[in-house]
Amino acid sequence: MTELVDEPLSRRDRARADTVREIKQTARRVLVDQGVDGLALRAVAREMGMTAPGLYRYFSSREDLVENVVADLYDELTDVLEAVRDAADPATPGFQLLSVARAFRQWATTHRAEFGLLFGSSAQGVFRPDDVHGDGDRPVQLAGQRFGAVFAALVAQVHLERHFPVPAEEDIEPALQVQLRNWCAKLPVALPLGVVHVFLSCWIRLYGLVCMEVFGHLRFALDDAGPMFEAELRALSLVLGVPEEYRPPAA
């Protein structure tokens, strides 16, 4: 059987790929500095010494460019989370999950503008929820699915090993059951409904706390949200049946 070998890119294709990469990097800088409202193709073109019409040879619209930048950001964040997961010692699902949660907060608090674009209201009017969280094959959807799979797979592994308590399906409000089933069908990992319920509850607590910290909504009470995050992380280790896996972060 003949093995298929990818043909090397032509000089023209390499030049185009380099230009696309530079455009996205420039757009990211503009987005970080000025937000989505300040991102115009002519602003990106001006930064690159191009004309705005010239950008249309690479991206069909402003929305197309933003979507590609968002996909790259999701991939960047997921690369960080996967690296932390794979480097965790011990390499147990519980410790990996707690380490990944901590890495998520670290990335969010050191990339506030990018976090706002991915998870906040910065992109309202540019994306619908299904643009990222749908089950399609657009780059931004594939990147969003890959991000979600990191947490979903680890929760599934923890449950398989520890069988943490989950509500019986009949004890979940019927209207919530319907919504959880719809969401579960989009997950890259098949999970029982009760596990999905616990997973979502844990995610709301962690994600909600990180959002409030990044967007400055905890300043009324906390100058440093780190200890509160660690308290929540420790509490969630109890919910997931892995309290012995929790370790305070290194100084």
Automatic annotation (TrEMBL):
It comes from the Bacteria. Residues 40-59 bind DNA. Keywords: DNA-binding, Transcription, Transcription regulation. GO terms for molecular function: DNA-binding transcription factor activity; transcription cis-regulatory region binding. Residues 17-77 form the HTH tetR-type domain. InterPro entries: Homeodomain-like_sf, HTH-type_TetR-like_transc_reg, HTH_TetR, MT1864/Rv1816-like_C, Tet_transcr_reg_TetR-rel_C_sf. Pfam families: TetR_C_33, TetR_N. Gene3D superfamilies: Tetracycline Repressor, domain 2 (1.10.357.10). PANTHER family: HTH-TYPE TRANSCRIPTIONAL REGULATOR RUTR, HTH-TYPE TRANSCRIPTIONAL REGULATOR RV1816. This is TetR/AcrR family transcriptional regulator.
